[in-house]
From TrEMBL, chain A:
InterPro entries attached to this UniProt entry: ACP-like_sf, PP-bd_ACP
Phylogenetic lineage: Bacteria, Bacillati, Actinomycetota, Actinomycetes, Micromonosporales
UniProt-recorded name of the protein: Carrier domain-containing protein
Domain Carrier: 6-91
Top-level division of the source organism's lineage: Bacteria
UniProtKB/TrEMBL annotation, chain B:
Molecular function, one GO term: hydrolase activity
Record SUPFAM superfamilies: alpha/beta-Hydrolases
Entry-linked InterPro entries: AB_hydrolase_1, AB_hydrolase_fold, AB_hydrolase_sf
Protein name in the entry: Hydrolase
Entry GO terms, CC: membrane
Start and end residues of each AB hydrolase-1 domain: 30-162
Family matches, as PANTHER family: AB HYDROLASE SUPERFAMILY PROTEIN YCLE, MONOACYLGLYCEROL LIPASE
One Pfam family per UniProt: Abhydrolase_1
Organism: Micromonospora rosaria
Keywords: Hydrolase
Amino acid sequence: MTTAQASTLAELTEMINAVLGDFATDQPVTMDTTFRDDLGMESIDVVSLAGRLQARYGDTVNFAHFVAQLDLETVGELRVGQLVEHIDTSLAAAGAGDR
Amino acid sequence: MTTVRANGITLHVQRLDPVAPALPGGGPPPTVVLIHGMASDTMASWYFTMAEPLARAGLPTVLYDLRGHGRSERPATGYALDDLVDDLAALLAELAVTGPLLLFGNSFGGTVAFGYAARHPERVAGIVAVESSPPTPEWMRRVRTRLHRVAERLPRAGAVAEIGARRGPVAARRAADTGRMLADTTILAELPASRLPSAERLAAIRCPVLCLYGGESAVADLAPTVPGLLPQARVVVLPGEKHSVLIDRPETVRRHVFAWLTERCGLAVAHPAAP
């Protein structure tokens, strides 16, 4: 994992815990953590996370477009690492890789 | 999380702005509003099926969780059709959405769309209703039966645990939340007793309408009644599909929606290929 990925993972973990509130997991969130089976996130929790990503990264990270490639079944199988990679790729493409 | 204060409550909202250039032909495109169903549904059903393809085709798209649902506030009362229509009208005012609307509703969300159109016909440029019906006495009888069946089943000992064993802990958490909503609010009494628009008000809805049904769903019984209520409606029954057709067959639903937008609404939207 690169330094950029580690820092994105840390930010994403904070957002995930904020979305889950009382249901936040005690387990450490890693690149291999899955949203549904490991974190117990419902589809509406994932939408709520999308709102936080939008607030944090603006239009640079198009989460809606990213998840449109999935359906409601496979979105549950999504791994945190896939989202971290999408965020970092989007930021790098927008020239924000030096944060 | 994006929330908006409207009609005295806090509603969870998501907006997807078009990434494509404006539609050819000039003029502002209509805004799509996606309305989910009652009791265990949320905006996620639309978010993961329809929202992004519509935005990508050039249509600004708004999603929200109905009161009591998802991450919107759950007041104890205010669950009649008029309240849900008032919420939508207030939300659009708060969001400064003033142009024409394309209302999409899944299950009872479609009824909210028709309810809004009956009160604000001049605002609505088109309605897509998936597994739904305009607000008629027969449909509201069915809604009452369905809500009461869920309300009786969920509090039974072991009911939520059984859902968990069959469909996993996430489904169990959602079922428990649905049970709390039915117990903690007046929805069971208020919604089926809603004041309904008159037949004249419904007949005054002249915009294009698309009604989609799953052939195996009990709601499809109502498909033959739609032309009598709304002669302009395109009615499509998808053989072998259930009430959950939006979730089960999103690509089929998208295909019918984009064909209807082009052919009946005169919108030059291309069905975006899967990304």
